């Protein structure tokens, strides 16, 4: 529940997973791994959202998923320089969706995005189908400095909207050791991501699956040991996405319990997208099991629609990460810090206009999506743990503190309507933050 947003929700989840794994070594060159698994997942979500003069809505959402999967991998070491691996995977999938929702949006918010003043949805559907995959990889160690990998993967899904939804994806990797302390890596691959049978977006009115999304990945990295206990890594990457399926986001406030009922729910139909950047990392080791690291990254993540680019909601231009950890006897200590450019945000703008009869009306509109940014995000997290030996296995007690110095990192804006002393309508904006300082105590028993 949320008091400010007047939300109430109930959720029930039940997951049952069964699996068996068999590893076989037939001789010193051939080995296989076989996994048989069965999964059953039940999700139920019921709730209401009521914000005075803004929105009233309710949702009843029940989903069930079942899968039976068989996966087998083979590895054959032809010689000291050649190795081939291959495998297959087969999944039988079934799902049941029962979704009902209703929503009423009051002026001026009913003018935003694709909102309707009143909307009801009811989707009952039971899709089923299969996923198949066959893959193979050939590794060739040309000499002590050069190693090449080439792979090919075939996938098929039988429950999407495409008549023949299958894909071929090649992958290539090159490792070149410039010296004993320096190695250079290149990787290129085509990847396809199918909408899983439990990812049908019924809460946003979608009742059919889309064809798979496609991505091209290109990565180059340089790793160098400045010292046996000091390492440097430099990496650049580019990922291009196409055939994107629609996605839905809440533009003002992503931290809501029932996102599809809110006034800021938006459908994003991008033609393509790109994610690219570079990262520099320095990591070292000290005495007494001390490990530390620090990194800087620059990145760009954008959608493209009709030749216009828009930042994705998780775009962060600059980011700094650092941390250290130390184990001492049965104690373990760690701390991690993050500092990055604020994530993009979208604002609501309002205007009071005069009507022909002399009255006034409040008109609302949305600025271009993600055209502004939140303030810089920063956080410091810490953890301490103590291990105890017990009769069976070991017991670890830990204390974690997230956002140690209670930084208020802006995350979102909540809008609500009201009337001033003269009876004129206005919209109030309240900025929210990510989690404050959060301590957590826990115990882990391993046996």
Report what the structure shows.
- With 447 residues, this protein is mainly beta.
- The protein contains no helices and 27 strands.
- The protein has a 19-stranded antiparallel β-sheet that branches. Strands 12-13 form a two-stranded antiparallel sheet.
- It is globular and about 90 Å long.
- The model has no long low-confidence stretch (mean pLDDT 92).
Secondary-structure element series: EEEEEEEEEEEEEEEEEEEEEEEEEEE
Shape: globular
Query: Radius of gyration from the CA trace?
Result: 27 Å
The number of strands is: 27
Q: What class do helices, strands and sheet pairing give?
A: mainly beta
Distance between the termini: 37 Å
Average pLDDT confidence is 92
Q: What is the overall number of helices?
A: 0
Strand content: over 45%
Low-confidence stretches: none
The major β-sheet equals:
19 strands, antiparallel
Helix content: under 10%
Précis, in short:
With 447 residues, the chain is an all-beta fold. The chain has strands at residues 7-25, 30-51, 55-77, 82-105, 118-125, 128-141, 146-157, 166-177, 182-193, 213-227, 230-242, 247-250, 265-268, 272-286, 290-305, 308-311, 318-328, 331-340, 344-345, 348-354, 360-366, 372-373, 377-389, 394-402, 410-419, 425-433, 438-446.
